[in-house]
Amino acid sequence: MDAKIAVVPGDGIGPDIIQEAKLVLDTIGTKFGHRFTYTDTLAGGAALDAVGEPLPEETMRICKESDAVLLGAVGGPKWDHLEGSKRPEQALLGLRAGLGLYANLRPAILYKQLIDACPLRPEIIGDGLDICVVRELTGGIYFGERGRREYPSGAQAYDTMAYSESEVRRIAILGFEIAMKRDKKVTSVDKANILESSRLWRSVVEEVAKAYPEVTLNHMYVDNAAMQLVRDPHQFDVIVTTNMFGDILSDEASMITGSIGMLPSASMGEGSFGMFEPIHGSAPDIAGQDKANPIATILSVAMMLRYSFGLLKEAEAVEQAVNTVLDGGYRTGDIMSEGMRSIGTSEMGRLICEAL
Ligand code: NAD
Hints:
By secondary structure, the chain is an alpha/beta fold. The protein has two domains: 1-103 and 281-356, Isopropylmalate Dehydrogenase (3-Layer(aba) Sandwich); 119-256, 3-Layer(aba) Sandwich (Isopropylmalate Dehydrogenase). It has twelve helices and 14 strands. It has helices at residues 14-32, 45-51, 57-64, 90-98, 122-125, 165-180, 196-209, 222-231, 243-257, 295-308, 312-327, 345-355; strands at residues 2-10, 35-40, 68-73, 103-110, 129-136, 146-151, 154-159, 185-190, 216-221, 238-241, 264-268, 274-278, 330-331, 341-342. It has a ten-stranded mixed β-sheet with strand order 2-1-3-12-11-4-5-10-8-9, sandwiched between helices. It binds nicotinamide-adenine-dinucleotide.
């Protein structure tokens, strides 16, 4: 395979972790006979410093001309005084909207080696966890009509949750496609006992399910899902849900794993194009000090291999290499525990490449 990747290191630890992720991609390329070509480009604070705006047109062009985007993180105290539209974080929203990325995939993986980081009791969590939350990203209540009405008795504010069949269909299809590459189970989360948009959601998901007879589908109300996630998280494989419910549930699911430096994410649009990034921020407190955990970004590369390039063996090889290094007792500061070997960003990257 010959793939073009737009690389956006961003700010803070962004450049530190992206460097290791590229080394891992290069190692995969050599081992499996693929060629990955990178175009580095600016976004966030780095772009503000260079050209005075968080998301330059040139960056959008490079991303659009690529097969996938790999992003570090953006933001930092240096730009905190800027007003909303000039803040580095605007680059993320601009990239998601401009690239038509309507689905956010957030796996919540608890590695058996890091089980102590999980806030749930050992008998609930067993020997690990692997859930994937598929959140609709460009519709629903965050994008519906909103406003205020003034009454003599005081103001009223409203937000509207609206979903069209096509919006539900495309995210449902993605959820089922992902389930086909995993344990073939989809839980669709809604509030169909109350919300009309949820009733449409549910009927479209059921219609889509007919094309995936191998996948088991169940529906769950969002309040119950929030409770079931901490009561018995192992019942879930893929959770497909709306923008707001997914926002809340994906944070809850990631907290179960307890380790911010370990969790990758993918934002997908039409076809196989996607943007891949760790869920954490730019961690300015440890930037440039060889302290950042590069694993979330390296696992984002695994998601890129799987979902954008369809390279399943290669994705598994990266995940396996991470496991091997954790098994060896190597830890960056954020996941360090007694008796383990403390290492830095570049050593973690090097060991994962060596394991590959
Ligand atoms: P953060 O995720 O950057 O950091 C929170 C804490 O976790 C810090 O103590 C940090 O050192 C630690 N941490 C984060 N990632 C780590 C890693 N890979 N290895 C080791 N430790 C790690 O969140 P924050 O401090 O709230 O935000 C800092 C900046 O990042 C802000 O400007 C914020 O707006 C931005 N941010 C960006 C993104 C993104 O680019 N996707 C996401 C969240 C926050």
